[in-house]
Amino acid sequence: MNVIVDTNIIFSTLLNSNGGIGNLLFSTNKNFEFYSCNYMRYEINKHWERLKEISKLSNEQLEASQLQVLSKINFINEELIDIDIWLAAEELTKGIDVDDTDFVAMTIFLDGYLWTGDKVLYRGLRRRKFNRVLNTAELTEIFLSQS
Questions:
Q1: Given this model, what pLDDT does residue 130 score?
Q2: Contacts of 21 (CB under 8 A, 6+ apart)
């Protein structure tokens, strides 16, 4: 199953790699194939100082954690995505959070499921009948049913 990882999932893992989200990311290689887009790397860098502050990790520790987390994710260049998919993703995220357009486009492109902890995004996409979005509880349930 292709799972597209939203930035907030990565933030949560960086802040607590031993939590439920981190366990899913590190323990499910045979059940899920994790993907993301290059935009996620930009968002991590944009919020780097805040992540250091919250995590209380040194720059070196956070960099090591980031390398470990990102090693579990396949990155796809957004330029491979067809314009029709971009337009559909823009329409889906309009009025919810256009910053998540890349992740929705990637989800459509890979015929996968978007894993997000963003409740506003999750509810908004579901209201628009985009059912290829999962929260952590749903992904955990899928994982447990496949174990």
A1: 97
A2: 9, 12, 13, 117, 136
d(CA 4, CA 6): 7
Nearest Cα neighbor of 90 from 42, 41, 128, 45 is 128
Longest dimension (CA), the chain: 43
Strongest mean pLDDT among 20-29, 127-136, 137-146: 127-136
**Three-state DSSP state, 112:** coil
Q: Which three-class secondary structure state does DSSP give residue 16?
A: coil
Would you say the C-alpha torsion 58, 24, 106, 80 has a positive or negative sign? positive
29 has pLDDT over 70 = no
The predicted model scores a pTM of 0.90
